[in-house]
Amino acid sequence: MKTSQQLQEFKKCLIIFMVGIICTILSCTIYALDPINIVFKWKLTMTPTSTVFLMWKKPPVDVFLKVYVFNITNAEAFLNNEEKLRVQEVGPYVYQEVLENTKIVWHDNGTITYIPKRTVIYRPDMSINDPKKDIVTVTNIPFLGISSALADAGFFVNFPLVQLTNLLDTKPIVNMTVYEYFWGYEDPLVRLASGIVPNFINFQKFGLLDRMYDEGDNLVNLNIQKNKNMSDENGRYLSIQNYNGSPGLAHWGYQEEEGNETIPGNTICNRIRGATEGTLFPSNLDKSAVFRVFRKAFCRALPIVFKNEVTTSSGLTGWEYTLSDNFLDPPDMNPENECYCRKMKKCLRKGLSDLTPCYYNIPAAVSLPHFLNADPSLLQDIEGLQPDREKHQTRVVLQPAIGIPIDVNSRIQTNLVMKKMTYNKRLEPFSNLAIPLFWNDLEIPSISPDLLMTMKLLLQIGPIVQTATICLLAIAGGTTFLLSLIGMLWILNQQTEQHSDERRDSVDLKIPLGYGQYTAIRILPAIKKITSKTDLFG
């Protein structure tokens, strides 16, 4: 009877032992395989059904364009050469930007092609006033732009233009609604000038935001093969390979290359291959990597560099990036900017970068808002500007593991660059001025609750649950293994006691003890003390 009971108890010990082994194996397997990382990679690999692809195709984030207009407050005194030009910031007027990547084609070489489509929706709830009702005093951009563009064209081009503007009584400073200033209005001078000098003036309607969002159908080729080497910008994951069939921008002097031929004029200044579109960045970011963000409205690729680590209001860890300090420096300070001087045939002052090819050949330039970090002379020429690093610096916070922007303020100002006005006396006060037109803040204030929950599951909750599971399985495995060992020793102790009793009852038989029984007799008294009061399998 005892033997049968001991056999049952031994089976229980064996089962507990196997449970311990299984728990230990599971713990080691989960630790080695890292299922969270496997799911992470699966979700962040571009495939037609992956999460990251759906996020890229139609980003589930709210993007707002906040626009601030520079209203002229002393037009008459300025035109009479009595005062410097004085401006006052008015805004914001807010539009929500919606992006969808369309006509997507997957290629066997690890790239996809697509056409990005952006639309804007006016947000009255976030705007200061109605842009269709607010009147501002601003420069007549077509008139001043045409005059500046033709300033070096000579007498025989400028004289008819001057006579024409005098005949039409075209004003250099005008009053119009904010909506007209943003989205354009027809001007008789523009229509006439486009017929007289079509090579210079190839438009009949001009609006600042209309120009930004008049992108047309642009075919983008994007690399979707993962490359851990982030220093290899050209082959970087989610980097642009070609834009409308070219890896560079012809309006900045890029020339098509054949084979491995290197053309001296082709530099990072006019090359967009390797730039990112700014919607998604590679996962597992490298702090030393410099990213160039390209959008047609920027007219160039803007370099951003790592600044520091931050914790967002949503509790996620982020890496803060900002525009590189020298991205608006002239070529003598930053040689990479040399090609931006070619269109205007001279380099602009520090803090300005030419936009002329992207603004109907009107001499325009990009800067930071209120000429932040620019040549001091730009501020001295205009009154009413107050640069503030906190308000006017670009700030991009990326989640480093996923590469998604979670907090963005991309701040850029557009300016009209005036050359020396020789042929039109009315425009002499504008000579050599960089006139601020407007600045905009492209903002992503937060990410959607669904996306936030997904990110927290992948980045915070998932790893904690996985680590806890590994620890619990390891503890359970070790505990059950130890209990099974103690149980087996207890059973062996019971068997030894039974044999001892039998030996005393039949001492004359002189039955020799086996090695295992002898060992148990020597080792198990201590175990007996522990187990005497408790039946492990009771």
UniProtKB/TrEMBL annotation:
<keyword id="KW-0675">Receptor</keyword>
<keyword id="KW-1003">Cell membrane</keyword>
<protein>
    <submittedName>
        <fullName>Similar to SCARB1: Scavenger receptor class B member 1 (Homo sapiens)</fullName>
    </submittedName>
</protein>
<dbReference type="Pfam" id="PF01130">
    <property type="entry name" value="CD36"/>
</dbReference>
<keyword id="KW-0325">Glycoprotein</keyword>
<dbReference type="GO" id="GO:0005737">
    <property type="term" value="C:cytoplasm"/>
</dbReference>
<comment type="similarity">
    <text>Belongs to the CD36 family.</text>
</comment>
<keyword id="KW-0812">Transmembrane</keyword>
<dbReference type="GO" id="GO:0005886">
    <property type="term" value="C:plasma membrane"/>
</dbReference>
<feature type="transmembrane region" description="Helical">
    <location>
        <begin position="472"/>
        <end position="492"/>
    </location>
</feature>
<keyword id="KW-0472">Membrane</keyword>
<dbReference type="InterPro" id="IPR002159">
    <property type="entry name" value="CD36_fam"/>
</dbReference>
<feature type="transmembrane region" description="Helical">
    <location>
        <begin position="12"/>
        <end position="33"/>
    </location>
</feature>
<dbReference type="GO" id="GO:0005044">
    <property type="term" value="F:scavenger receptor activity"/>
</dbReference>
<keyword id="KW-1133">Transmembrane helix</keyword>
